[in-house]
């Protein structure tokens, strides 16, 4: 937390624009299928006055991301624990949900880890729900209930909902509808060059 705050204080962000962040959330799925989607997403975050950077994952922890405020500007931090594309998008969708709905004077710093998926905390439950709506994965379990899961059906859901196939596979894994190692051809990683550009320690 202290490292993240120290890094954030070195930034000179634009004024925070909540409406722009709401627009990003509304169109988050579309960034996932852009050729340079991660870069465009971070650029638009910065235009909305949201500070974004990457910190190295702390050994023996499960921290994936965090959100907080420095003065009037929200901050989203992504750790390098996993660099899979589906993980990047889910963590960022989750943190956007926190920024828009949960950061306040009483709750000024939220750190998240992978096992928050099973939490009973109301803020985390809501952030999980909102992130799945931002990424259009909220209907995955229903959509695949009467369909055989295959490369073709994964691609069909991704096309229909304008999201990356890696996100569909990530959601199916989370729901335990497929094995973790299934469909490795849909495993994508974040572009290293893009990630290093925002790496702050």
Write the layout of secondary structure elements.
Layout: H1 2-8, H2 18-26, H3 28-31, H4 37-47, E1 51-55, E2 63-70, E3 73-79, H5 85-101, E4 109-113, H6 122-134, H7 140-143, H8 151-161, H9 165-174, H10 192-197
Parallel strand pairs: 1-3
Antiparallel strand pairs: 2-3, 2-4
Quick overview of this protein structure:
It contains ten helices and four strands. It is of the alpha+beta class.
- Portion of residues in beta strands equals 5-15%
Please write the string of helix (H) and strand (E) elements: HHHHEEEHEHHHHH
Number of strands: 4
Alpha carbon gyration radius: 16 Å
* Shape, per Cα inertia axes: globular
Largest sheet: 4 strands, mixed
Specify the number of helices. 10
| Average pLDDT taken over every residue | 90
Low-confidence regions: none
Fraction of helical residues = 40-55%
- The N- to C-terminal Cα distance equals 13 Å
Q: Structural class, judged by helices and strands? A: alpha+beta
Strand order of the largest sheet: 1-3-2-4
Kindly describe this structure.
The chain has helices at residues 2-8, 18-26, 28-31, 37-47, 85-101, 122-134, 140-143, 151-161, 165-174, 192-197, and strands at residues 51-55, 63-70, 73-79, 109-113. Helices cover 46% and strands 12% of the residues. It is built from 10 helices and 4 strands. With 201 residues, it is α+β, with helices and mostly antiparallel strands.
